[in-house]
TrEMBL record:
InterPro entries: Epimerase_deHydtase (IPR001509), NAD(P)-bd_dom_sf (IPR036291), NAD(P)-dependent_oxidoreduct (IPR051783). This is NAD-dependent epimerase/dehydratase domain-containing protein. Gene3D superfamilies: NAD(P)-binding Rossmann-like Domain. Transmembrane segments: none annotated. One of its GO terms (cellular component) is cytoplasm. It comes from Guptibacillus hwajinpoensis. Residues 4-228 form the NAD-dependent epimerase/dehydratase domain. One of its GO terms (molecular function) is aldehyde dehydrogenase (NAD+) activity. Coiled coil: none annotated. CDD domains: SDR_e (cd08946).
Length: 303
């Protein structure tokens, strides 16, 4: 892997993936349309972090408006992380996601395409979830990811497609509407906080572990594949909530599901993961630091 393109490079996971790859000596073309007007300060701060690196080039454009063929021409790998803006209607999000994904596929022939999907595509299920479990999305984000996966799975055989499905991802720069980040900003759990855990089957992973797995998956020579990333445990998200509030939750007895980590361990050596209390310590310290540097990053965005 010598040169890559990352869509959504100034997003949460996109930022960390860009940082990871630059540290590996990989050239990065980062595409980001900066579509959220409430995150202007955040975008500027992230861009300043990379702008002096000669291996990084920023493209300020939405995928719909970008000359993708030109940008991807010299890249051997494309990481597709960009998602439609969450405030749109589900049907519009699906339409936009499918349209931009198709456009991206047209220029990826002969390359490796790594697509970041979500455990949300499985919907409400119980028992053991594997890569072969039928999907049943019920949330808007889950439906978008499911439709985009369907498009990607029709790609020409000359393109190597790697689909990576993740549960809740946390760490520095996590969006403010997630439970952990909201807690570090406001000091209390948001109402109906358990809804988030249910969406991600109560599993959670630290962002830098996810970036490592994405890299390991991209460089595998086995061809196209789909991998579910998982902590391998049950209730990791709840463990994180308990660490934040400093007390045990009243975990109601209910049928639960667990996401199998068999494939991600055997294929990409997804082990030695960051303990959730260590990852949350780093996220908390980052929030405190950012609040001192530029309170505008979070003020008015956590309600």
């Amino acid at each position: 892997m010598k040169k890559v393109m990352i869509t959504g490079a100034l997003g949460f996971i996109g930022f960390h993936l860009t940082e990871f790859l630059l540290n590996e000596g990989v050239e990065v073309v980062g595409i980001d349309g900066r579509i959220d007007p409430t995150r202007v300060s955040e975008y500027k701060m992230k861009e300043m972090y990379f702008i002096r690196n000669s291996n990084y080039r920023q493209v300020d454009s939405r995928l719909q408006d970008c000359s993708l063929e030109k940008e991807v021409e010299e890249c051997d790998t494309v990481f597709h992380l960009a998602s439609p803006h969450g405030e749109k209607r589900a049907s519009h999000m699906i339409q936009e996601g499918v349209s931009t994904t198709k456009k991206l596929l047209e220029v990826c022939e002969g390359k490796v395409l790594v697509y970041l999907s979500s455990i949300e595509i499985f919907g409400r299920r119980y028992g053991n979830i594997t890569e072969r479990t039928p999907i049943n999305p019920v949330t808007s984000d889950g439906r978008v990811k499911a439709e985009e996966e369907a498009v990607i799975n029709t790609v020409d055989r000359n393109t190597t497609v790697k689909i990576i499905r993740v549960p809740l991802v946390y760490g520095p720069w996590q969006p403010v509407h997630y439970v952990f980040q909201d807690f570090f900003i406001n000091g209390t759990l948001m109402k109906a906080y358990e809804t988030e855990g249910e969406r991600y089957h109560f599993d959670s992973l630290y962002v830098k572990d996810v970036c490592q797995a994405m890299y390991q998956t991209a460089v595998r020579k086995e061809g196209s594949e789909t991998i579910n990333l998982s902590s391998g445990g049950e209730g990791e998200w709840q463990n994180g909530v308990e660490w934040c509030i400093g007390e045990k939750l009243n975990r109601k007895k209910r049928l639960r599901c667990a996401i199998s980590n068999k494939d991600c361990v055997s294929k990409v050596d997804f082990t030695n993961l960051t303990p959730i209390h260590k990852g949350l310590e780093q996220q908390r310290d980052h929030v405190e630091k950012m609040m001192l540097i530029d309170p505008a990053i979070y003020l008015g965005r956590s309600e």
